[in-house]
TrEMBL record:
Domain Ribonuclease H2 subunit B wHTH: 87-218
Lineage, uppermost ranks: Eukaryota, Metazoa, Chordata, Craniata, Vertebrata
Function text: Non catalytic subunit of RNase H2, an endonuclease that specifically degrades the RNA of RNA:DNA hybrids. Participates in DNA replication, possibly by mediating the removal of lagging-strand Okazaki fragment RNA primers during DNA replication. Mediates the excision of single ribonucleotides from DNA:RNA duplexes.
Pfam families, per the entry: RNase_H2-Ydr279, Ydr279_N
Entry annotated with the keyword Nucleus: yes
GO CC annotation: nucleoplasm; ribonuclease H2 complex
Signal peptide: 1-17
Protein name: Ribonuclease H2 subunit B
Protein species of origin: Ficedula albicollis
Gene3D superfamilies: 1.10.20.120, 2.20.25.530
Length: 299
């Protein structure tokens, strides 16, 4: 029986594929809930689940890889980039806040999902316990800590993310706003993007990792007006249909042959036509008479 070999080509940092520190801590590709849509999405935990990476696939039709003397049918190219695990944890905090009506709970009881058994690994990522205070209120009883979702802290944390994104866009000279449209036709340096363009663009990028309701709240928190779609054009008026027969609104009999003759008579004549009209035509034959059949002669 032939051995089926599945090979994935990845663009990833060295930290994503560090050698395992223990035999049971190899890098793990697994599906978790997308923090924006709640749908299954592929992620990667590095060795020991110390860091989370987002996995995105670049796929084109009719694309394969040549490996030695074989052809790998799956021609996808995977891009692996670091991701803040707080975005995924935030999804479960908001869900628990709605279900438990804002009660404090241990994190290991909040970040649970029967459909995604690898979900608790999010809490093992480095610095999660240190930075969880950016999105939760914390209460400590004895040696145990309890948390609940805080929208106020979360919006402050997300605003920092937006500002960091804006800074990265500017430092890398990423075109946004009107410069994207103008760069094809004129020198983009002649147009300066407004700060609002950068903030709105950064908000759109961050919104890909948070629920829609939170994205709208963040938009208000940033002081950005919500963009409204243009109003649809009114439909064209339709003529009312009726069973009554349609009668002509004008008297078309005025266009009969007599009127046409009169109209022709009233048309202006050229000088040559006027001179020809004054010639005496008596005794003259019409030109058509010369092309007619000859009369039969009697024998």
């Amino acid at each position: 029986m032939p051995l089926l070999l599945y090979v994935y080509f990845c663009l990833a940092s060295e930290a994503a594929l560090d050698p395992p520190k223990t035999p049971d801590s190899e890098p793990l590709f697994t599906k978790l809930r997308n923090p924006s849509t709640g749908e299954a999405t592929l992620y990667l935990f590095n060795s020991g689940a110390q860091q989370l990476f987002e996995v995105k696939a670049f796929h084109e039709e009719r694309r394969s890889w040549f490996i030695g003397q074989t052809v790998q049918q799956d021609g996808r190219l995977l891009f692996v980039t670091p991701m803040d695990p707080l975005f995924l944890i935030l999804y479960y905090l908001i869900k628990a806040d709605k279900e438990q009506q804002g009660k404090f709970q241990p994190l290991d009881q909040v970040v649970l999902d029967s459909e995604y058994p690898s979900c608790p690994l999010l809490l093992k990522c480095a610095d999660v316990k240190q930075y969880i205070q950016h999105i939760t209120d914390e209460k400590e009883i004895g040696s145990q800590k309890f948390h609940k979702y805080s929208q106020e802290k979360t919006l402050k944390w997300l605003k920092k993310k937006v500002n960091q994104t804006v800074k990265a866009l500017k430092s890398n000279n990423i075109l946004v706003g009107e410069r994207v449209l103008a760069s094809t036709f004129i020198d983009s340096k002649q147009i300066t993007d407004a700060q609002e363009d950068y903030v709105r663009y950064a908000h759109g990028l961050i919104s890909e990792y948070i629920p829609e309701d939170l994205s709208k709240e963040l938009l208000k928190y940033l002081g950005l007006p919500e963009l409204k779609s243009p109003a649809p054009e009114p439909p064209l008026k339709k003529r009312k249909l009726s069973d009554v027969p349609v009668e002509p609104q004008e008297d078309y009999t005025k266009f009969n042959s007599d009127n046409l003759k009169t109209k022709k008579a009233n048309t202006k004549m050229s000088a040559a036509q006027k001179a020809l009209a004054k010639v005496d035509k008596s005794g003259m034959k019409s030109i058509s008479a010369f092309f007619g059949s000859k009369p039969k002669t009697s024998k």
